[in-house]
């Protein structure tokens, strides 16, 4: 793919595409007979590639990757110097080398992703994300902040007047226990999907109207998709309506709502009723 572009958004897209190509090649090489081996190899190949390219092209920046040792630990004085470095850094790349490892290892599934996001201390937004890309290798596309998709405008009234039911992306393996009741309350239809990146990408492209998660996640699960979603003009917040924040001492970010802006107030009100 040649030398990477120097602008951060385009670099994130380039990096997600590079990792995606490697993962598709690995799928073809190893096949699906040994699921455990494919999962482990996928995590390692993508992580090593992204880490190597960041060290080469963005050596001054800190990195938080799901596959880093101790990445899930909240920062304390005993935690590694890597954590101290990222908390003091002005720029931090937040990486999920393979989001949806389960789906990656299932033949025929395309709902898995590569997440590359950049957090900056000088960012104007509360979430601090200034660039990001979500690679969807098996769908042959990358969504990025450098060229955010043009989200089709549609008011809730127009959608319901046309007889279309609100579509909520839901985890195929561990949806929040309240989500079925919430969907019934607002007359929504649940659409099961794999990785968080694939679900938020589906909101970005208009395939679904919202994604609600409350079952526990980490910053790398949502950073890149949220960067793209907000660049596209979508609403993104915690399920209580508060701002999403990244590069925190504790990388756990357990819940989020990404949706069309015209749906945000209605969904947040429904979440108040059902997620307590």
From TrEMBL:
At which positions is Mg(2+) bound?
A: 66, 96, 98-99, 221
Gene3D superfamilies under this entry? 3.40.190.80, Fructose-1,6-Bisphosphatase, subunit A, domain 1
InterPro entries (UniProt xref) = CysQ/Inositol_MonoPase, Inositol_monophosphatase-like
Q: Which UniProt keywords apply?
A: Magnesium, Metal-binding
An example Gene Ontology biological process? 3'-phosphoadenosine 5'-phosphosulfate metabolic process
Enumerate the GO terms in the molecular function aspect. 3'(2'),5'-bisphosphate nucleotidase activity; metal ion binding
Cofactor(s) the record lists: Mg(2+)
User: Carries keyword Magnesium?
Assistant: yes
Give the protein's recorded name: 3'(2'),5'-bisphosphate nucleotidase
């Amino acid at each position: 793919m040649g030398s990477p572009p120097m602008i951060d958004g385009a670099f994130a897209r380039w990096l997600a595409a590079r990792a995606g190509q490697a993962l598709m090649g690995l799928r073809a090489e190893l096949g699906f007979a040994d699921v455990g081996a494919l999962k482990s190899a996928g995590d390692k190949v993508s992580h090593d590639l992204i880490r190597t390219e960041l060290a080469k092209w963005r050596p001054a920046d800190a990195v938080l990757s799901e596959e880093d040792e101790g990445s899930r630990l909240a920062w304390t004085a005993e935690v590694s110097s890597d954590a101290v470095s990222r908390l003091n850094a002005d720029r931090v790349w937040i990486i999920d080398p393979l989001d949806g490892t389960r789906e990656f290892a299932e033949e025929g599934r395309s709902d898995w992703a590569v997440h590359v996001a950049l957090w900056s201390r000088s960012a104007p937004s509360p979430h601090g994300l200034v660039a990001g890309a979500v690679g969807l290798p098996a769908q042959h596309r990358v969504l990025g902040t450098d060229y955010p998709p043009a989200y089709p405008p549609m008011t809730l009234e127009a959608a319901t007047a046309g007889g279309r039911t609100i579509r909520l992306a839901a985890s195929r393996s561990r949806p929040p226990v309240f989500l079925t009741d919430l969907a019934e309350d607002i007359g929504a239809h649940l659409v099961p999907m794999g990785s968080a990146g694939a679900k938020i990408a589906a909101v970005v492209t208009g395939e679904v109207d919202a994604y609600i998660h409350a079952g526990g996640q980490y910053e790398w699960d949502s950073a890149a998709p949220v960067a793209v979603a907000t660049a596209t003009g979508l609403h993104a917040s915690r399920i209580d309506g508060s701002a999403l924040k990244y590069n925190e001492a504790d990388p756990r970010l357990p819940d989020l709502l990404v949706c069309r802006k015209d749906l945000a107030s209605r969904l947040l009100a429904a979440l108040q009723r059902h997620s307590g």
